[in-house]
Amino acid sequence: MGQFMTNPSASNRKPSVRTAGAVLFVSTLLMASVVLPSTASAQALGYASTSRVTFPSDEVMPADRPAVSDDGGTAPVAGELPVRLRRTIVDLDTREAPGTVIIDTGNTALYYVLGHGQAIRYGVGVGRQGFTWTGTQTISRKAEWPDWRPPAEMIARQPYLPRFMAGGPGNPLGARAMYLGSSEYRIHGTNDPSTIGKFISSGCIRLTNEDVEDLFNRVSIGTKVVVLPKNGPHIIARAAAPLHADASPTRPVVNRLPSGREALNLSTGSIY
């Protein structure tokens, strides 16, 4: 009888334990419904802050103001370069051989020597304060739509940068890249033309994608590249003629004499 009387009291206690457990479970769910949305929101915001289409790195800097033209005003058309930065043929007095690339850092200009006293001038973006350099290099490698692997020094300055970025329209190196010797420096394109004419990179030389494709097709492995100091003597060149896509050194005019022999009309400037 004593055992029989004990069992009912034990059975009466079980519902209370189950009820307490159910209440605890419901309370936990209610608390989760309050906490989880904010946690999910924080996680979503955290992911969004590190997921970037383009990276404000040393090689691609966002433009915070429009390009400025030679007269101090803004360029008349969005994305249009000032006249001095547009690709053109110029008269150039240099001892460098045809095919040489000369970079006038202080004037943000790159010259491809044609010979016969002429060169093609391109507007470029160069290294910002503390990142300019000078010297002579050679083109050691060429790449179309190159991949981008930020060097360790750049990652140390900007840890959020990707360790690898496949080539394409959104890549900071643009459409083409020409690598200079065994250094980290390159001549490359850019998807932000507003940076042309500015001191903005970590030492690389950048051109618009259209201009870098043109230069890429003219140079070869082993091409000499001369980089002049920012504060040194600058190149003095004057526009010679509008540049066409198939621009090449002017060939002498051939005249046929009455005797049947041919003669060349050479200007004194082409004899050296």
What can you see in these coordinates?
This protein is of the alpha+beta class and 272 residues long. The protein has 2 domains: 1-42; 83-241, L,D-transpeptidase catalytic domain-like (Beta Barrel). The chain is built from 3 helices and 14 strands. The strands form 3 sheets. It has a 10-stranded mixed beta sheet, with helices on one face. A hairpin with a 2-residue loop joins strand 3 (109-115) and strand 4 (118-123). The longest helix has 49 residues, at 2-50. The radius of gyration is 33 Å and the shape is globular. Residues 1-14, 32-76, 248-257 and 262-272 have low confidence and may be disordered.
Describe the secondary structure blueprint for this structure:
Layout (H helix, E strand, L loop, with lengths): L1 H49 L37 E4 L9 E4 L4 E7 L2 E6 L2 E2 L7 E10 L7 H6 L18 E5 L5 E3 L10 E3 L3 E2 L2 H10 L5 E5 L9 E4 L11 E4 L5 E4 L7
Parallel strand pairs: 2-11, 5-9, 8-10
Antiparallel strand pairs: 1-4, 1-12, 2-3, 3-4, 6-7, 6-11, 7-8, 13-14
